[in-house]
Amino acid sequence: MWHLELAAPHRVEGVKIAVLTGGGDAPGLNAVIRGVVRQATADGHEVIGFRDGWKGVMDNDWIALDVQGCRGLLTRGGTVLGTTRINPFMRDDGRDLCKAAFEANNVDALIAIGGEGTLSCAQEMYKLGFPVLGVPKTIDNDIGLTEMTFGFATAVDIATEAIGRLHTTAESHDRVMVVEVMGRHVGHIATWAGLAGGATLTLIPEKPFDINEVCASLTERHTRKYASIIVVAEGAKPIPGTFNVPADTFDEFGHVKLGGIGELVATEISAQTGFETRTTVLGYVQRGGEPSAFDRVLATWFGVEAARAADDRDFGAMIAYQCGEMNRVRIADAVEDLKYVNEKLYGVASVFFTTNAVGDPDVD
Ligand code: F6P
Question: 209-239, pLDDT tens digit by residue?
Answer without folding.
Answer: 999 999 999 998 888 767 999 999 999 999 9
